[in-house]
Amino acid sequence: MARPKLKVVPVTEEPEHTLDQYEDAFLECRGLAHAWSSIGFFQDGGYVSRLVRCARCGTEKVQTMRTNGTFVRNRYEHPEGYLMTSGGVTKSDVRYEVLRRASNQTYGSLAELRKDLTKRSRRSS
Ligand SMILES: [Zn+2]
Fold it and tell me: Are residues 71 and 77 in contact, defined by beta-carbon separation less than 8 angstroms?
């Protein structure tokens, strides 16, 4: 039986991309998913497509579907700096960075967070 061909993958000592300089809006979208708003529909090579835009980071998605609603494809256009130049990051990497940035603004309990939100909404009204 032939052995599978193995590829040598170079190991770098440090990741090529870290999230510490990554824009807040991009990090939020990677952690929570994009905040899509529908912009409009258009005919698209025998299909119908909808242009949607993320209210937070500006990423655009063209959702292409058949007229019966079945999925054809999604195409994305990201703002400069959104995509990682190296192999990308995991969901855990994103959560770690979110926690790191929130470390000095984390409440002791959900009740404390809600109490502060109530105070803030009273102040703004
Ligand atoms: Zn987004």
Answer: no
Q: 11-49, pLDDT tens digit by residue?
A: 555 444 578 889 999 999 999 999 999 999 999 999 999
Q: How wide is the angle at C-alpha 52 spanned by C-alphas 47 and 58, nearest 5°?
A: 140
Torsion sign across C-alpha atoms 55, 70, 83, 98 = positive
> Mind giving me the DSSP string for 17-85?
--STTS-HHHHHHHHH---EEEEEEEEETTEEEEEEEETTT--EEEEEE-TTS-EEEEEEEPPTT-S-S
Residue 30 alpha carbon to ligand 1 centre in Å: 7
pLDDT of residue 125: 66
Q: Return residues with CB closer than 5 A to ligand 1 (ion).
A: 29, 34, 54, 56-57, 59
- Please state the pTM of the whole predicted model: 0.74
